[in-house]
């Protein structure tokens, strides 16, 4: 039982790390495809449409095998709003921002998502926050620490520790003089952060009310693809832009459909159901660490002191948040167990009171 409990607790952590790795790979490949001339609007439509087609047979198979609760008009409206937030707003604005700036800027500003999600979760009472409780203090402190570590990686380089094989020490700088639309890209990414935090809260509320992750993910992707297609057909009227070229464009579309649409959407929905919105959002700063490790291993980037310190700070922030959630879970279990002990003690207490009254009489 102990081993199963440990594996159950470790699984959400492991799959969220895989999600962040997939996101870094998807963002990097999408930027390469856009540099090759691919429209960001066309890219979002194609990879979500392909992902929906991949999900369709699994959704049909799952619906035939299991007896799921009936779909109501209210639920379909929720799925429509999820598609609008998660795909039409988050993904379209994110890739617009990346096309105008860089993946590094997107990863840096993405660290605002945990803060926005934490505030929204408190407002909508999805996270309990009481400054007098150590669990609430830990969750707030851990979120701030993790964000601070990610910004340290972004803004403080420090002396080199491990020299890479690349010819340039500043691979993908955060602010480049050649990126004249950096401010516009940053604005689009900031809008993405707010919409992504809102999606985390709304998706967690939806999966709590309707705990069928497969159905939610399929309709979310389906509605989001239709919405993106309508917007993209209005914005991107050049027929040649809709021609998918072999090479990096096709590879980025296929990779994003499998890992960005199917895998990421399914895992996020499951983790939101199991752990809540704060647990999912707090993994965003880890994207900076993953990008740093992948850059050192595969791109020959140089490891600097600031990156090492920032990675350590992020790890400390993660530990504090997870400790706070574990502490809160223990408090809930204590509250569940207390009524049983009190009901067992109540008859004895009542008997002693009756005996005392008899003696007094």
UniProtKB/TrEMBL annotation:
How is this protein situated with respect to the membrane? Multi-pass membrane protein
MF (Gene Ontology) = transmembrane transporter activity
Q: Where in the cell is it found?
A: Membrane
Could you list this entry's UniProt keywords, alphabetically sorted: Membrane, Transmembrane, Transmembrane helix
Instruction: Output the Gene Ontology cellular-component terms.
Output: membrane
Q: Where is the EamA domain?
A: 27-154, 185-322
Regions crossing the membrane: 37-61, 73-98, 104-126, 138-156, 182-202, 214-234, 279-299, 305-326
Is this entry keyworded Metal-binding? no
Record family assignment: Belongs to the drug/metabolite transporter (DMT) superfamily. Plant drug/metabolite exporter (P-DME) (TC 2.A.7.4) family.
Q: Which PANTHER family match?
A: WAT1-RELATED PROTEIN
Q: What is the protein name given in its UniProt record?
A: WAT1-related protein
């Amino acid at each position: 039982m102990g081993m199963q409990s440990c594996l159950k607790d470790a699984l959400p952590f492991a799959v969220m790390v895989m999600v962040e790795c997939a996101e870094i790979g998807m963002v990097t490949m999408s930027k390469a495809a856009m540099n090759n001339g691919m429209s960001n609007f066309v890219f979002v439509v194609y990879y979500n449409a392909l992902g929906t087609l991949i999900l369709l047979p699994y959704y049909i198979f799952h619906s035939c095998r299991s007896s799921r609760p009936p779909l109501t008009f209210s639920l379909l409206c929720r799925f429509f709003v999820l598609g609008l937030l998660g795909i039409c707003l988050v993904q379209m604005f994110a890739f617009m921002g990346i096309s105008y700036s860089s993946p590094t800027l997107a990863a840096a500003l993405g660290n605002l998502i945990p803060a926005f999600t934490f505030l929204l979760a408190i407002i909508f009472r999805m996270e309990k926050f009481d400054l007098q409780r150590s669990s609430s203090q830990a969750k707030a402190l851990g979120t701030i620490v993790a964000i601070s570590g990610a910004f340290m990686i972004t803004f403080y380089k420090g002396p080199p520790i491990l020299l890479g094989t690349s010819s340039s020490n500043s691979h993908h700088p955060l602010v480049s003089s050649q990126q004249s639309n950096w401010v516009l890209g940053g604005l689009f990414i900031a809008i993405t952060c707010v919409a992504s935090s809102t999606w985390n809260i709304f998706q967690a509320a939806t999966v709590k009310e309707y705990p069928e992750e497969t159905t939610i993910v399929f309709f979310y992707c389906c509605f989001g693809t239709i919405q993106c297609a309508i917007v993209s057909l209005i914005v991107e009227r050049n027929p040649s832009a809709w021609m998918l070229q072999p090479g990096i464009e096709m590879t980025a579309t296929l990779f994003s459909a499998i890992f960005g649409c199917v895998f990421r959407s399914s895992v996020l929905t499951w983790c939101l159901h199991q752990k809540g919105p704060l647990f999912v959002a707090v993994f965003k700063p880890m994207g900076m660490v993953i990008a740093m490790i992948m850059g050192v291993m595969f791109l020959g980037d140089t490891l600097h002191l600031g990156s090492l310190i920032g990675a350590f700070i992020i790890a400390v922030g993660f530990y504090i948040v997870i400790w706070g959630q574990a502490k809160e879970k223990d408090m809930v279990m204590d509250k569940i167990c207390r009524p049983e002990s009190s009901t067992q003690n109540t008859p004895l207490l009542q008997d002693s009171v009756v005996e005392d009254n008899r003696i007094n009489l």
